[in-house]
Amino acid sequence: MKRPLVSFFLIFILSVTTIFSAQASDSFLPGMPKVLDSSDLYAADKANHLSDTVKNFPSLIYVPNTQSNNVTIIDPQTYKVISTTKVGREPQHVVPSWDLKTLWVNSDKGNTLTPIDPATGKFGKPVAVHDPYNLYFTPDGKYAVVMSEAAKQIVFRDAHTMKIKKTISSQCSGVNHADWSADGKTFVVSCEFSGELLLVDTAKMKILKKQKIPVLNKSAKAKDHNGMRNMGPMPQDVKISPDGKTFYIADMMSDGLWIMKAPWSTLTLLKTGKGSHGLYVTRDSQNMIITNRNEGTISILRFSDNKLIAKWKIPGGGSPDMGGISADGKIFWVSGRYDNVVYAISTTDGHLIKKIKVGTGPHGLAVYPQPGRYSLGHTGVFR
After folding, report:
1. Residue 9 in domain
2. What's the CATH number where 140 sits?
3. pLDDT value, residue 217
4. SS3 label, residue 313
5. Lowest-pLDDT choice from 13-22, 40-49, 195-204, 324-333
6. Rounded to an integer, what distance in angstroms lies between the CA atom of residue 65 and that of residue 329?
7. pLDDT of residue 233
8. What b-and-e string marks burial along 195-234, b requiring 16 or more CB atoms within 10 Å of the CB?
9. Residue 161 structural domain
10. What is the pTM of this model?
11. 25 three-class SS
12. By the 8 A CB rule, do 326 and 315 touch?
């Protein structure tokens, strides 16, 4: 009598385990690498934790110069420029591929993606891609997501061949930056010129929701370095918190961060500085670096309580835009968009280590290699 009872309980336990395993699997985007730590989406990004894929790549800084139509490469050990290579018209960002094996130069007005082999620093043959202002990759590694800003489209392409799989209207103006939810099933996209946010279904490749960012002061007129006047918000970079519970959206005209409960909710504003632009999670996942492009400062946000704990000013002023953190976490490399330089800034106390002259209009530079198992794109969003 005991054996059948034991067998019954074993079958019951196995059945329950199978059900819970299926439920756990269903809670994430199929094919997406397993989350290492649910309390820290950036658990794979710790200092010097380079994957086997990239550990032998030379450490370099790749700088796209939008107005010079070239890419400058800097040696971070010597702080010297070692090469400058011509690419398509208006290179905006240098983007690590999902599998970490390629860097893509996005030349939106040149309608090309130029591959760079990070093992050698050599540039390959450009691939024809229409209006690639920015480039992301779905968490499962299947698709490249091209943000076609001028064309007002989000284009899903094969992550390797770049052949089009699906094109959707962005339903907004100035589509450019994004980040994914913890489960990989949706992503939030910012629309710079219409002041809107989109919630996009990753697998279905369709827009689920859209919301307008609040206009806090309808009578005020903001002005950026280009002399552009804008009555409303101008959302830029998007980043999710380590615990996956909060999205942060930098807003250049509202001069701060919009804070939104993930995956989609109402917005509240935290003022950081004029021209809030780029967002970067520190190697210990405790803080976020925020560039304030229009006042030459960098703010530090503490994730645990959403408090600003420091503000660093670039000596003599500057225009910190987009960049990345060194593999050891000690240096924040960021382009000086309107000063034609790259800044190397200490992440310990914010002092300027070096200012390096590059081409005209440096934009989305990539620090490479960096820790992480795979890339979601932009200048290096790793998980």
Report:
1. no
2. 2.130.10.10
3. 63
4. strand
5. 13-22
6. 25
7. 96
8. bbbbbbebeebebeebeebeeeeeeeebebeeeeebebbb
9. 61-368
10. 0.91
11. helix
12. no
Assigned domain for 1 exists:
no
Instruction: Output the DSSP codes for 31-71.
Output: TPPPPS-TT-TTGGG-TT---TTTTTSPPEEEEEETTTTEE
Number of domains in the chain: 1
Alpha-carbon gap, residue 346 to 8, rounded angstroms: 62
Instruction: Label residue 218 by pLDDT band (50, 70, 90).
Output: low
Distance CA 170, CA 165 (A): 16
DSSP string computed for 313-345: E-TT---EEEEEE-TTSSEEEEEETTTTEEEEE
β-strand partners of 288? 281, 301
With tokens 């710079």, the residue in question is 192
Beta strand 366-368 pairing with 229-230: unpaired
Residue 140 in any domain: the answer is yes
Could you give the CA distance from residue 271 to residue 256 in angstroms, rounded to a whole number? 4
Q: Rounded to the nearest 10 degrees, how much is the dihedral formed by the CA atoms of 344, 236, 250, 296?
A: 40
Q: Is 26 exposed, middle or buried (0-12, 13-18, 19+ CB in 10 A)?
A: exposed
Structure tokens at 288: 């976020």
Cβ contact 262:182 at 8 Å: yes
Residue 11: Cβ-neighbour burial (10 angstroms; 0-12, 13-18, 19+)? exposed
Here the tokens at position 300 are 């530090």
pLDDT at 6 over 60: no
Closest-CA residue to 65 (of 51, 85, 81, 46): 85
* CA 359 – CA 4 distance, rounded (Å): 77
Does 206 map to a domain?
Answer: yes
Interatomic CA distance for residues 284 and 23, integer angstroms: 31
Amino acid found at 41: L
CA–CA distance, 330 with 139 (Å, rounded to integer):
27
SS3 26: helix
Give how far Cα 171 sits from Cα of 194, 265, 266, Å.
Answer: 10, 19, 20
